[in-house]
Amino acid sequence: VTSAPSSSQDPRGRPIGVFDSGLGGLTVVRELCRRMPGEDIVYLGDSARVPYGTKSLETVRRFAREDVAFLLRFNPKLVVAACNTASAAAIEMLEATCPVEVVDVIRPGAKAAIELTDARIGVIATEATVASGAYERAIAALDPSRKVMSVACPLLVPIVEEGRSEDDPIVLHVLADYLRGLQRFRPGVLILGCTHYPLLSSAIGKLMGPDVGLVSSGAAVAEESYRRLSGADLLSQASSPGTLRCYTTDNPGRFSALSERFGGRKPDHVEYVGTDELEFRPVESSREM
Ligand code: DGL
């Protein structure tokens, strides 16, 4: 990274920092931009180390700490952990160590699901997210009586990254296999607990049937981010659309080419940053929210 944009004097002009294991978190950025179009966003996609979803929670925690340390260089007013796996593994650690507030994707998604139905809740996510039990904990914290079934769907991330369409027979076959147990469980709502799954939402919706609502965390995370920023009087006052500045730890050409499919817009800037440049550097800043 050659130069980071200088931070504005007005704290409301500071960017929102967003990180993910790769491109998928741009589905969350899409919702942030829809809810708060004037906000500048700095995004880190750790594409060199994707997937996080098959790694141990200790490894993901280390990656998440490094990702946030990188974002702190941009003096963000809020950090969004857009990756479900990183949120599941590291949110407590990040909340305890990050000098600005951190919004995760798990708790807003769990809350949105509970508000949508009184019935059982299904969750599909990566292996690491399911192994962490983070969705079960987040749901139980809000409603301990709620029955939850979580299913790991490891093939879905590569399928989405490959750009296969939702009516591709391979996609439908894989989904049908993963969702069989959940169809029998008959949830009132299914949480799409991974950044990539919103891109398969119509196929998932068809297989689960019209009585099962689908929750992707993106909109709930955008709402939570809006709530925290407005509560701290940190919403951008800009009348023009905010910028989207992306950093990736792998091929920026591939990142640029695929980013619009995930984020719904072209980034204003895409730059490479090596994983060796992400290491922790303490910043002199105190919690401001
Ligand atoms: N971003 C990850 C998540 O939401 C999916 C991709 C990965 O496994 O790294 O869990």
Could you walk me through the main structural features you see in this protein, from its secondary elements to its overall organization?
This protein is an alpha/beta fold. Helix content is 43%, strand content 15%. The chain has 11 helices and 10 strands. The strands form 2 sheets. A 6-stranded parallel sheet has the order 4-3-1-2-9-10, sandwiched between helices. It has a 4-stranded parallel sheet with strand order 6-5-7-8, with helices on both faces. Helix 1 (26-35) crosses helix 10, helix 1 (26-35) packs across helix 11 (252-263) and helix 4 crosses helix 10. It is globular and about 55 Å long. The chain starts with 15 loop residues before the first strand and ends in a 17-residue tail after the last strand. The structure holds D-glutamic acid. D-glutamic acid is lined by residues 20-22, 24, 50-53, 83-85, 126, 129, 157, 194-196.
- Binned, the helix content reads 40-55%
Structure class:
alpha/beta
Helix segment tally: 11
Radius of gyration: 18 Å
Question: Quick one: biggest sheet?
Answer: 6 strands, parallel
Q: Helix-strand pattern, N to C?
A: EHEHEHEHEHHEHHEHEHEHE
Spatial ordering of strands, largest sheet: 4-3-1-2-9-10
Mean pLDDT: 93
Gap between N and C termini: 27 Å
> How big a fraction of the residues is strand?
15-25%
Shape: globular
Return residue spans where pLDDT drops below 50 for at least 5 consecutive residues: 285-289
- Bound compounds: D-glutamic acid
What's the total count of β strands? Answer: 10
